[in-house]
């Protein structure tokens, strides 16, 4: 299985949402992968969040319009609140969500290349995410033909007409060909397994159902759900890693369910090129594997009061419940709950209501 | 839970014959059907003799058989699409696979004929995972697994009691939808099986289904009959109602429901605009059904499919019966069905297949 090349021919004539979407990329190595995505990404503004050593210079390929933040920038901009942003973990990407001024965010890992569809055509993942976000979701009733708004599809017999308008889509969760997003134990048992199955569907995850949200290939409506996309405390100085996107996904899904927003999963696929070291992963995930047994029931049973009508209010309420119910699992959750509150405070500071601010400056 | 090993002799293929000439249908399916026992139930309203080719191991049931077994003991009408439920009743096998007689094998994306029977068996013999959504769909499929973040305690899954397949060409749309888009045909082959999450409702089409009769049997009910019910799927809601009840029962009993593969190819038939007049009633009813299933709860003491249907029938009569008499009749039919199941379906009978 190979990623796509010669993507130049596949770029759309008019890039949708060109001035309304930011691409947030966390990186600690380099941004070479952007060359491959150029025809699809170049029209858009990039927010690069540089993790690790801030003195390292990360070269951004020519021709991209971007802003770049390293740890020094994060500390300067957030001051003491910078404590909520992870260090030495791709979780730091959520800083990019916070500083973005756009309505939509697409985030992708720097080891994700352009995939090919079964016909061999390069997949414009961004275009598909935009389609997903701009068409409604249907969380209240499952459509057996998957996305009813897709060309050639529709609602099936028995689907209640009153539910066919759907609800706004807050999140579009894409998938990965080649290296699948497995946890460390599965990677150790199946080191050679590759995802070669192209499932040609987008579907809404039903209300009340949780899922593992992967941050490798993800897009969301920042105005609808942004503040819920906090990727937690991971990496340096933290007892856990590789649960950043999971945590954000569980919080996000609970809040979306509460606010009547939709979460889609399925297309688009990207080509995931790098398998991380399973032994390193095991060390990072180890606690998470045990903790998630407590965390999942917590989220499954979480109820948000009716007066939580904004994402921020929902999130603060969740933070309260995390402190109440999960601190006994490990003191980490006490810290995490505090960080969740810090995150919202920082978000609101950087995103005051009614303020329209232009993009940050490129370095 | 472990993988089930389903033997050929544990499976019945049940076909409701709404057409008298089954020659093409049976011959198209022969490579997939020939290993199994078949039950063919003739729609009691069908006047012509059934034409069935040789070479199959089967039992055929007609109006007289139905009358003999069921007689006047029930309000259930086994006519039209509901005739297949008689087959479910008299089957002695653990698993049933059923499809409409206007479906033939589909081809997958590589052009190979899809063995729908084998796929349904595979779906029923591997666990379902209703409590947490796996983003790579069925984790028990070759080349797939649970993704990062999927709780380990939920990875053994639960028994899959129902497998819902899909349709290429003529999709199972309602009449208004197909009438608006008369040329639309489903050509999208989605290569996935997935578990429908617990508490999620869905419209289960009867066109291409399979289930564990032993565990779910009486929960598949021929109960909701529209006043103007006809001989085209657009003109019925019986399977949709049945499916809502079955999913509800599965959720209550902790059983799984899968959807996706296999596809069958559904032949073009009927005129959606003509059918518009007949199905409108069904469309209205769904609006009542959804809030009902969202709020109803069964007592914990309902531990079998039978118990569940009896309890459900009570609530249907109380709450939905007040809204529309069709539900009062449905509730009655549900109780009749359970009674019938107890006397015929689970016990000994000379007419068992």
From TrEMBL, chain A:
Give the species this sequence originates from: Rubroshorea leprosula
What is the documented function of this protein?
Probable UDP-L-arabinose mutase involved in the biosynthesis of cell wall non-cellulosic polysaccharides.
Q: Name one GO cellular component term.
A: plant-type cell wall
Q: Localized where?
A: Golgi apparatus
Which residues are sugar-modified? Answer: 157
UniProt-annotated site: Required for activity, residues: 157, 164
Q: Which family does it belong to?
A: Belongs to the RGP family.
**What is one GO biological process annotated to this record?**
cell wall organization
Database matches in SUPFAM superfamilies: Nucleotide-diphospho-sugar transferases
The EC category is isomerase
- Return the protein name: UDP-arabinopyranose mutase
What are the GO MF terms of this UniProt record? UDP-arabinopyranose mutase activity
Going by the UniProt record, its keywords in alphabetical order are: Cell wall biogenesis/degradation, Glycoprotein, Golgi apparatus, Isomerase
Supply the EC number(s): 5.4.99.30
Per the record, the domain of life is: Eukaryota
Catalysed reactions listed for this entry: UDP-beta-L-arabinofuranose = UDP-beta-L-arabinopyranose
- InterPro entries under this entry? Nucleotide-diphossugar_trans, RGP, RGP_fam
From TrEMBL, chain B:
**What does the record give as the reaction this protein catalyses?**
UDP-beta-L-arabinofuranose = UDP-beta-L-arabinopyranose
Q: Name one Pfam family in it.
A: RGP
Question: Which InterPro entries did the record assign?
Answer: RGP, RGP_fam
Query: What name has this protein been given in UniProt?
Result: UDP-arabinopyranose mutase
One biological process term in Gene Ontology: cell wall organization
Query: Can you tell me which family this protein belongs to?
Result: Belongs to the RGP family.
Q: Per the UniProt entry, what species is this protein from, by scientific name?
A: Rubroshorea leprosula
GO function term, MF aspect, one: UDP-arabinopyranose mutase activity
Summary of the function given for this chain in its UniProt record: Probable UDP-L-arabinose mutase involved in the biosynthesis of cell wall non-cellulosic polysaccharides.
PANTHER family named among the record's database cross-references: UDP-ARABINOPYRANOSE MUTASE 5-RELATED, UDP-ARABINOSE MUTASE
Swiss-Prot/TrEMBL keywords? Cell wall biogenesis/degradation, Glycoprotein, Golgi apparatus
EC number(s): the record gives 5.4.99.30
Residues marked Required for activity (site): 148, 155
* Sugar-modified residues: 148
Instruction: Please tell me which top-level EC class this enzyme sits in.
Output: isomerase
Compartment(s) where it occurs, according to its Swiss-Prot or TrEMBL record:
Golgi apparatus
What does the entry list under GO cellular component?
A: cytosol; Golgi apparatus; plasmodesma
